Amino acid sequence: NGYGDTLLIRAMGIGGWMVQEGYMLQTASFANPQHKIKDTIEDLIGATATQAFYDAWLENHFNKADVDSMAAWGFNTIRVPMHYNLFTLPIEEEPVLGQNTWRTKGFNLLDSVVTWAEDAGLYVILDLHAAPGGQGYDQGISDYDPTKPSLWESVHNRTKTVALWKKLAEKFATDTTIAGYDLINEPNWNLPGGTLLRNLYEDITDSIRTVDTNHIIFIEGNWFANTFTGLTPPWDNNMAYSPHKYWSPVNSIADIQYGLDLRDTYNVPIWFGETGENSNAWYTGLISIMESEGVGWAWWPLKKVETINAPLSITKNLGYQQLLNYWSGNASAPSVADATAALMQLATNLKAENCTYNRGVIDAMFRQIYDPTALPWKEHTIPGIVHASEYDMGPLGVAYYDTESMQLNPPPAWNSGWTYRNDGVDVQAFSDFVNSNGYCVGWVDTDDWMQYTVEIAQDSVYTIKVRQGANGATGGNFYFEADGVKLTPNYYASNTGSWSILADKVIPNVILSSEDKTLRFVANSGGFNVASFEFIPTGSTTALDAEYVSSNTYSYTEIEVKTNKPLDTTQLGNFASYYVTINGNQASVVNIAPSPNNVRNFILTLNQNMTFLDEMKVSYSGTALKAKDGTAVDPFTQELVENTLPTVHVIPGKIEAEAYSSMDGISLENTSDVGGGQNIGYLDGGDYLLYDIKVLNNATYSIDYRHASQSNGKIQFELYDTSGTYLSNMPEVTLPSTGGWQTWNTTSGNAGVLTQGDYILKLNVIQAPVNINWFEFIQGIGVEEEMASDNLMVYPNPAQDGFKLGGMWAEGAPLEIYVYDESGRLWIKESLTYASDRVISTKELSTGTYLVTVVSSGKRFTEKLLIVQ
Does the reported pTM lie above 0.70? Predict the structure, then answer.
């Protein structure tokens, strides 16, 4: 800014205020651009009433209350989308073509915004959202009328655009509340080479700089802001590029790399000047990525009619819905008086104080970025009723989980019920005569869950009445958890015969404790609706046995054991009463302690490490392990421990290139290679990927690389220990051009000798571009393996064009044949059935010494072979 401070722009775009868009008013199917919306209204209620409606619209849609709310929520900038016709006449209405008649309405509106923003400590960015004539084929965005010349088809429209920006710059040249000028929103027109777009941008820039050298100029690319062909390098020393982002992945920095490349290549700031229209999980993901790179953003929009994914939702009155029905051809025409009243009521509903505040949206955009915890959506007290739709507020995987949690391109989307919450949980409006809050959770899929922060008044056995519905004989099943401990078996949803009919599913004998802080409702398999849970105390916990529930790995040396009751932490038993095996071998218990996660759990510490490949079982045969209510925990025998230790890639074996633990500069794309999935691409020299690996055997290894490119690439692996200390590197490998980015070939290389253990494998990109789908480490001769010449005969030896095998195998026995050079590089790999007269061709091998390895029935035999010419 003007004080030399770095500004991370956190802006909100005021969509729908000066430029109406049909989808925000639910008119897109019959009137998408503003001029059609206005004509549709005027045809029904007349010009005078229409003008009164638009006056009220501009007055009420955005005012000081909105600005103050934005400041309180955490925004620091307002992006104001402007319609040129509030500032100047269309060229078709100018008394003298080529001259500009100025209107005061737009300038007065901006004066108000700047005053409110200054009072609230916010910046303002001016955005020409609807340029003279319209800047794109998409009519709704820029109010383009295809019966008239567009911005690109009329020099007079472009001249007017230049003049408008100069007029605005003259007015705000020294205003420090103005952060900058977003010259043209989302051009989307066939502009070869971007030449006409750049020429117009330069003309606007020149006109602004004659009166204003202070403010930033923001430049959007063609095709909805993201194609910068012809727009680089920068032509002004105080400008920024402004790409947009919608309906695309938000998994890593690679997902905004197209913007970062502009910044890094041209040493110019970038600002993602428009994004949004998605779920809370998508919002949190994208903002986290952008702010990790110091990149600012602007969300879109502040409010819409009946929405869940904007901060404010405009209430749709019944009269307006009747208007929509009429305009859609599904109802008769209302009277002029009723139509006018409905529209004026809609204009009143625009005011911030009359809108519904979607607090989950703001929480996802601000708090959850730096505090990824769950907060109660509502206070829940047990005994009592908990409504399914009132699950905690927080990130995906913390407050809830849903298999469809955001909209990408193409869909699926997220909340299929489109009401109340902006998460993946599918909340729908629903009226029920029992315990209803007006909502129901539907479209429940397998593994979906919702968490509820609760206050439990007393330790007790409870009956839970689950208000649910299903339309089918098997409606899926569910269970409850408390702070990570499964409280109930799986219960199948009852078939109510209709999705619109609910009934009580009674879950008996559930032990709840006042120390339980969160409950989860988990769909073990989907196919039902659920509206509420009623918790009814039925008696003392002493009436039920204390029992083992489950166990899991807690660390590399610890197992967490879970029971159904809160435990007496002073009576956890002695070491000798527990028996733990790892792959069938006993491991000693050296400590027993309460779990910090749940009063029902305790931790067993072992005298040795476990790995993700191990199978652990736990037994208890004592009498000292007691619940808090005095009941003894029943003994249990050889219960399987869930292994939750981090999974790593096992060598020998195949590693999918996209299955990295960390990376820099990598993008993913769908692959056409056999097996489908994704490949890594858009690689540049200096990019890298990290993989966690476990080498099972001391041996020499070769590597097969699956790659595609239009030019040669070069990569190299490095090996690090698990603390990140460099150990060694493998030979560089050249990946020859395959002729296309999805034309896949396999190239083999040498890995050398690898020693058993855990490592970090780093793939360095040396020469690019190249795409990689997978790479496979293939084990050769073991480092400690002896030559097995007594069991394997390779002849003739030396060989020239091929060799035969002799040994102890019967005709037809399955064999795996590997031929390595002395560096460990694999040259031949064949699967065949044994035949004494079968010749293995060596015509492609150069003169030298090789190792022939035969694997059969789990045994490995190796013999040296000399190739001569």
Answer: yes
pLDDT in tens, 80-114: 999 999 999 999 999 999 999 999 999 999 999 99
Helices first, then strands: H and E counts in the chain: 15, 53
Q: How far is CA 102 from CA 167, 189, 236, 732, in A?
A: 9, 27, 28, 67
Q: How far apart are the first and last CA of the chain?
A: 75
The whole-angstrom separation of Cα 435 and Cα 390 is 13
Domains 10-53+76-300 and 373-541 share a fold: no
The string of pLDDT tens digits covering residues 256-314 is 999 999 999 999 999 999 999 999 999 999 999 999 999 999 999 999 999 999 999 99
Pairing of strands 178-182, 123-130: parallel
How many other C-beta atoms are found inside a 10 Å radius of the C-beta of residue 121? 9
Q: Which CATH number fits domain 10-53+76-300: 3.20.20.80, 3.40.50.720, 3.60.150.10, 3.30.1050.10?
A: 3.20.20.80
Residue positions counted in the chain: 869
Which bin fits 97, alpha (ψ -120 to 50), beta or left (φ > 0)?
beta
373-541: in CATH 3.90.1150.10:
no
Q: Cis bond leading into 383, ω under 30°?
A: yes
Cβ(403)–Cβ(445) under 8 Å? yes
How far is C-alpha 523 from the geometric centre of its chain's CA atoms?
Answer: 22
Q: Phi-psi bin for 267: left (phi > 0), alpha (psi -120 to 50), beta?
A: left
The pair of structure tokens assigned to 356 is 């519904």
Does pLDDT of 783 surpass 60?
no
Whether 784 shows a pLDDT value over 50: the answer reads no
